[in-house]
């Protein structure tokens, strides 16, 4: 018999998958804006199921596997279908349409398989090997969304099909890379905790712009940190003065 504490997080996870499924149906219909918003809502569910599981102490191997399968739909297959639909409508005879969209889906699934092999169900959130799949999806959808928003509001065409393909391929490659990615709270630890609620509110209000800024900033900061540690191990990023400053800010 399933314990009641496992029901809530698994229902939220199922909601994540359902939203990813809806996104796929909207991409097929050519309603890209709705497809993007369903992926964003799936991201919210993906965050909530983990928080709910931690609150209820309801971690299990089933929950971990279920979450990964649902993420494969919402952040792997759904964005890849969006990419396929956008490329098909923009370049009907393009030879890269199928390979680019499939590579993203393939790398997303491989990323989740690697995650499940390495990690066990736990309340502790560790760093990632490779970029987490929700951020990869955020990079892809946010580029298209910010371009559409700028065009509607300022009549300026920022969207470029080659850049869109580049963003898709780069995000796919980073997912299956061995580059370590810190959790978002560690990556943005330099932000004072007192400002966090205000920044979150600003991000929500300006989501059509802020999702692009946050997802790409998260990626860039982790890449800088990785290459800095690899090629400049004595870098000032490890300066104890900076570490002390961060500790003081966190304590305040």
Please tell me about this protein's structure:
The protein is an all-alpha fold and 252 residues long. 75% of the residues lie in helices and 2% in strands. Strands 1-2 form a two-stranded antiparallel ribbon. It starts with 6 loop residues before the first helix and ends with a helix.
Q: How widely separated are the two ends?
A: 46 Å
Number of strands: 2
Strand content: under 5%
Query: Which radius of gyration do the C-alpha atoms yield?
Result: 19 Å
Order of helices and strands: HHHHEHHEHHHH
Q: Strand sequence of the main sheet, in spatial order?
A: 1-2
Explain briefly what this protein structure is:
By secondary structure, the chain is an all-alpha fold.
Give short descriptive properties of this protein:
two-stranded antiparallel ribbon; globular; 252 residues
SSE blueprint:
Blueprint: H1 7-29, H2 32-56, H3 61-90, H4 97-118, E1 128-129, H5 133-154, H6 161-175, E2 180-181, H7 184-187, H8 196-205, H9 207-231, H10 240-251
Antiparallel strand pairs: 1-2
Helix pairs in contact: 1-2, 1-3, 2-3, 2-5, 3-4, 3-5, 4-6, 5-6, 5-9, 8-9
